[in-house]
UniProtKB/TrEMBL annotation:
Organism taxonomic ancestry: Bacteria, Bacillati, Actinomycetota, Actinomycetes, Propionibacteriales
A Pfam match: Radical_SAM
Catalytic reactions on record: adenosine(2503) in 23S rRNA + 2 reduced [2Fe-2S]-[ferredoxin] + 2 S-adenosyl-L-methionine = 2-methyladenosine(2503) in 23S rRNA + 5'-deoxyadenosine + L-methionine + 2 oxidized [2Fe-2S]-[ferredoxin] + S-adenosyl-L-homocysteine; adenosine(37) in tRNA + 2 reduced [2Fe-2S]-[ferredoxin] + 2 S-adenosyl-L-methionine = 2-methyladenosine(37) in tRNA + 5'-deoxyadenosine + L-methionine + 2 oxidized [2Fe-2S]-[ferredoxin] + S-adenosyl-L-homocysteine
Active site: E111 (proton acceptor), C366 (s-methylcysteine intermediate)
Domain of life: Bacteria
EC number(s) recorded for this UniProt protein: 2.1.1.192
Stated name of the protein: Probable dual-specificity RNA methyltransferase RlmN
Alphabetized InterPro entries for the sequence: Aldolase_TIM, Methyltransferase_A, RNA_MTrfase_RlmN, rRNA_lsu_MTrfase_RlmN/Cfr, rSAM, rSAM_sf
Gene behind the chain: rlmN
Cofactor note (record): Binds 1 [4Fe-4S] cluster. The cluster is coordinated with 3 cysteines and an exchangeable S-adenosyl-L-methionine.
Family listed: Belongs to the radical SAM superfamily. RlmN family.
Keyword Zinc part of the UniProt annotation: no
Positions with a binding annotation for [4Fe-4S] cluster: C131, C135, C138
Additional comment: Reaction proceeds by a ping-pong mechanism involving intermediate methylation of a conserved cysteine residue.
Length: 373
């Protein structure tokens, strides 16, 4: 006997604004099974679909041969609706860097970047369409916030990246996606519920989720202190990346406006508490901007601020050569100043690296491609 026609499942849309269609990735496996029963389907259909989506990385209904042929399209359309459409994909670094501009169901634009290295493959994903943090040197911040993304919209960027790696679409042949960084468009902790849902989907064992290691997932924040503290209680030991960009309140108030609510001291202390609770080293993100925050004395001050919480190696500084937006006064630091900054941090015992810059020729900084579109 064939399954009855499934019913469409959609989120409620408060305040008259449409929500993305509900998707398998929005739900835990138990919730998927319940949703299947509500749609008049046997509960095991939920697991079959989960295997296709998270384990086999299949999106074509024709390949899901364990579903009844007569209803395959309807079942897939109900639980795996189209969430986003690729508008443009640009490649750099001999095809090992791929940046995709996506259009969401309501026309909002977001970006993701897949980067293949010799020892890993990392995807940088968005959690919001736009961003409300208003950091003046960031292309996304200048566009303002359009809306939060759903858990499934966030997860789908990763699944598509994993599919591209597995199928050999990325230069270097078939491989495995290993790392996820929430460093694309948006402030992840300002969309806390959906982001935590996405983290759980990414780290749940297949077929409930994608089966990635939580240690290979990095969640970035400009410093929403209450949410950092909440994240420490979730039991998912992701890496926390704090976008600090300045060690003093006077400058950080200008570069990261949320600092007027949560000072450098409060923000760094919350990050330290996260490291102490989770036993996971925190990454301090610091975009190097010429004559703005790259002075040698600021390197000394940054080291002193971080060392004030102990010297047990709780923190690592990741210096980021700024990828400037067109027409911006914010430009990358002189290489000599960058080297001196590194030297001074390391002299005070702070583990420091300079991020490998990818994708400059394809508007690699988040928000540039969407702004151009």
């Amino acid at each position: 006997m064939s399954d009855p026609k499934p019913l469409p499942l959609v989120f409620n849309a408060p305040r008259g604004r449409a929500k993305p269609p509900r998707h398998l990735a929005d739900l835990s496996l138990a919730e998927r099974q319940e949703a299947a029963k509500e749609a008049g389907l046997p509960g095991f259909r939920a697991k079959q679909l989960s295997v296709h989506y998270f384990e086999r990385l299949v999106h074509d209904p024709a390949e899901m041969t364990d579903l009844p042929a007569a209803q395959r399209d309807e079942i897939v359309g109900t639980f795996l609706p189209d969430l986003m459409t690729p508008i443009r994909t640009l490649e750099a670094d001999a095809g090992t860097t791929r940046k995709t501009l996506w259009k969401l169901f309501d026309g909002a634009l977001v970006e993701s970047v897949l980067m293949r290295y010799t020892d890993r493959a990392t995807i940088c994903i968005s959690s919001q369409a736009g961003c409300g943090m208003a950091c003046p040197f960031c292309a996304t911040g200048q566009g303002g916030l359009q809306r939060n993304m759903s858990t499934a919209e966030i997860v789908h960027q990763v699944v598509v990246g994993a599919r591209a790696m597995a199928s050999g679409d990325v230069a270097g042949g078939p491989g495995r996606l290993s790392n996820v960084v929430f460093m694309g468009m948006g402030e992840p902790l300002a969309n806390y519920k959906a982001v935590i849902g996405a983290v759980r989907r990414l780290t749940d064992p297949a077929p409930e989720g994608l089966g990635l290691s939580a240690r290979h997932v990095t969640v970035s924040t400009v410093g929403l202190v209450p949410r950092i503290k909440q994240l420490a209680t979730e039991g998912v030991p992701v890496t926390l990346a704090l976008s600090l960009h300045a060690p003093d309140d006077e400058l950080r108030n200008e570069l990261v406006p949320i600092n007027t609510r949560f000072s450098v001291a409060e923000t760094v202390e919350a990050a330290w508490e996260y490291a102490r609770t989770t036993k996971r080293r925190v990454s301090i993100e610091y975009a190097m901007m010429r004559d703005i925050n790259d002075q040698a004395w600021r390197a000394d001050l940054l080291a002193d601020v971080l060392n004030s919480y102990g010297d047990w190696g709780w923190v690592h500084v990741n210096l980021i050569p700024l990828n400037p937006t067109p027409g911006s006064k914010w430009t990358a630091s002189d290489p000599a100043d960058e080297r001196e900054f590194v030297r001074r941090l390391e002299a005070k015992g702070i583990s420091t690296t300079v991020r490998d810059t990818r994708g400059r020729e394809i508007d690699g900084a988040c928000g540039q491609l969407a702004a151009a579109e």
